[in-house]
Amino acid sequence: MDGRPEVPRCSLCTGPAVLFQRQSGRHLCSAHAIADICDRVAETIREESMIVPGDRVAVALSGGKDSTALLMLLHRLLPLWDGVSLVAITIDEGIAGYRDETVRSAELLVNSLGVEHHRIAFEDLFGATLDEYLKGREKEACSICGVLRKKALIVGAERAGATKLATGHNLDDEAQSVLMNVFRGDLSRLVRNSGSDSSGRFIPRIKPLMKIAEKEIATWLLLNNAWTDLPECPYSRYALRREVRSILSTLEYRHPGTMLHLLESKKTIEMRCAGALAPEPIRHCRLCGDPCSGELCQLCQLKKTLGR
Questions:
Q1: Which of 96, 128, 165, 281 has the most CB atoms around its CB within 10 Å?
Q2: How far apart are CA 61 and CA 73, in angstroms?
Q3: What one-character-per-residue DSSP string does 104-141 give?
């Protein structure tokens, strides 16, 4: 005995474990960890009917870890569906010292996979970079960026002829959003489902990684030699999400399954409120004509607020 701790063994094959799933209590070796995550993503897609034969799926590819794993996983799972194709959409918000590196990472990935790639810049679409929009309003960064980025992704997906728009939101992201909406008392946003009842008006959004924890995604990338150390968005320090992430991480460690239970609770609330909450009537923005629930869409409201 050399005094070193014994390496845990895989619960499925007794090989050396690289991942411990706290909720299930399983240790997984490299091969079984990779296969487990692939299988669970495929299962989520099937259960939620996210992809059907003939779909053209636009992947929102920022170049960060979640969107990188999403594109790689969907590319690997493509044989499951007949006639499904992928296209990557990268949004360049114009954030100095940050976005250039992630865009390069995205370009390297699509080139290696042979996936069609579209790049949309805030400056071209909205006439200014995010940095310019945020001068003196840095604490509103996530709210402003969210509205602009949502529109840019829709434009990119439409230009690419996509039938679905896939985003890299993972289990941590989804659980954080549930808790944030509870903190804000925003029931309508809590029960909103961007992938349902589009009725041809919108390109439905899908989240194939919604049941995969952030730690598992990082592990999957490392095991596939696809991990890239990239900078964090400089505006993230202003986000409420940062504080919620810390709270949830602690709860998940102490009570494994907390985040998944939050996600399941959201689904239960959606089902129970389906008949009680009347859907917002779809109107059209009086300035740009886009579908919206009020007189102005979020983008035009934002431009009006910012004096643009």
A1: 165
A2: 13
A3: HHHHHHHHHHT-EEEEEEHHHHHSS-HHHHTTT-GGGH
The answer on 117 and 76 residing in a single domain is: yes
Strand-pair partners of 266: none
Tokens for 126?
């909205």
Cβ-contact 263, 171 below 8 angstroms = yes
Please, are residues 131 and 96 in contact by the beta-carbon 8 Å criterion? yes
- Could you read off the pLDDT of 31-66 as tens digits, one per residue? 999 999 999 999 999 999 999 999 999 999 999 999
Whether 218 and 112 map to the same domain: the answer is: yes
Buried b (16+ CB within 10 A) or exposed e, 227-243: eeebeebebeebbebee
Q: What is the per-residue DSSP string for 30-62?
A: HHHHHHHHHHHHHHHHHHTT---TT-EEEEE--
Which domain covers residue 253, as residue numbers? 35-277
Task: Calculate mean pLDDT across residues 2-8.
Answer: 73
Tokens standing for residue 152:
């840019």
Q: Is 157 helix (H, G, I), strand (E, B) or coil?
A: helix
